[in-house]
Amino acid sequence: MEQRYATSPDQMPGFGTEELRRRFLVETVFVPGEVNVVYTHHDRIVLGGAVPAGKQLALPTFDELRAEYFLQNREIGIVNVGGTGTVTADGDTYTLPEGACLYVGKGTRDVVFADAEGGAAQFYLFSAPAHTVYPTQLVLRGEGNVRELGDQLTSNRRTLNQYIHEKGIRSCQIVMGVTELHPGSMWNTMPAHTHDRRTECYLYFNVPADARVIHLAGEPSETRHLVIADRQAVISPSWSLHSGVGTAAYSFVWAMAGENQSFDDMDSAPVTGLR
Ligand SMILES: O=C[C@H](O)[C@@H](O)CC(=O)C(=O)O
Ligand SMILES: [Zn+2]
User: Fold this and answer.
1) Closest CA to 89 of 72, 102, 101, 99
2) What does the alpha-carbon distance between residue 90 and residue 106 come to, in Å, rounded to a whole number?
3) Relative to the CA of 242, which ligand 1 atom is closest?
């Protein structure tokens, strides 16, 4: 699996476009017939995709994990951003229509991805180290804790759905959900924030083929941008902004891991202070 070492904010001013993308963007998440993942040393998150493409696709272990099986010392959050599929965890099969989220706890030996009848599933994977076992649990699209955010007048009306969090599906570290922009709204997470206790990753999806998201990264006082296409993921270290504006409406899976799980524990970055 691809490994990416951690980046310090004092390196940011020296990065050109290619270097920024190489460090923070996961350009290809979904590869048909494969489990394709990246290991970032920021909070030791493993993120990527699993695309069964008509077959039974097992979650393998990787040498870099030094574990007998993937979830020996880890937990995983899975969101399906494709057609309906199934995930089988130690013999129990869960059906995930588009937008559903499955948490699979530490200690689960066998995880197998498959398409449901007529479906073409695309499972987004987000895994973090775990210290104890929480039960495997499924939540369907729209059935998490719903928060309505933003305003049409500032082009940031969006519906945020919290799936794995303190008052929802329990986990050791992972906090995960999906945000959907309303038609005509383009800005996510503005006003922006950082959270020095957690790394966060976004997977942008439902981005039209001819549209892009201009994603802001870096410290609030020294911002950079990445131009992101459909079904690409971006890693935001604890010190980095993670906000974006699309050239059309879109959705994204957001997921965090780190020191705490307090969703509202953000360090706000007021618009007037951005540079
Ligand atoms: O720390 C929280 C994350 O940045 C996201 O949940 C924010 C988000 O989905 C949004 O504002 O639309
Ligand atoms: Zn955040």
Assistant:
1) 102
2) 12
3) 4
Q: 118 falls in which pLDDT band (50, 70, 90)?
A: confident
Whether the model clears a pTM of 0.95, i.e. scores above it, the answer is yes
The residue whose CA has the least distance to atom 11 of ligand 1 is 189
Q: Which residues of 134-158 are buried (b: 16+ CB within 10 A; e: fewer)?
A: bebbbbebeebeeeeebeeeebbbb
Q: Ligand 1 centroid vs 96 CA: distance in angstroms? A: 23
- CA 53–ligand 2 middle distance (angstroms): 32
Instruction: State which ligand 1 atom lies nearest to the alpha carbon of 190.
Output: 11
Tokens for 172, please give them.
């050791």
242 is in an annotated binding site: yes
Q: In the chain, what are the domains? A: 15-273 (2.60.120.10)
Reply yes or no on whether the pLDDT at 119 is more than 90.
no
Question: H helices then E strands: how many in the chain?
Answer: 1, 24
Q: Does the C-beta of 242 come closer than 6 Å to ligand 1?
A: yes
Atom of ligand 1 nearest to the CA of 156: 12
CB-based contact 174:236 (threshold 8 Å): no
